[in-house]
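We append the chain.
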Amino acid sequence: MQMPFGLHKGKLLEDIPLDYLKWISQNLALSPSLGPFVRRELERRGMIEGGSLRNEATRTMAFAIIQSGFRSLAKKLHPDVGGSDKEMRLLQTARLELEKIMELLKLRTGQ
C-alpha cells in the first residue's frame, strides 16, 4: 500500500519512518482504505522495532542458532556423509538468506 498524502506521498508504507506512521495513526482519522494497512504495518514493525531482535546480545544468539543449525544439518546433508550436492546447496542458500534477513533487521532498527 502506498501513502496517498503528505510528506511521504507515493511511498510504500514499509518505507515510511516508524515515527511518522505512529503520528498519523494517533492524530488523524484515517480512511477505511488506509487505516487497516497502517495498523498492520505498525504491528509488523512491532516485531522488529520494539521486539527482541533489537538487542545486540539477542541478535548474536540468533546468528549462533543459524550457524548451529547449519552445522547440524550439514553433518546430515553433506555429500561425504550420504547427502547430495543439491541438498547442500539448498542448505547454504537458506543460511545465507537467514543471515541477510538478520542484517536487514539490524539496519532497520539502527543497531
About this structure: The first helix runs from residue 18 to 27.
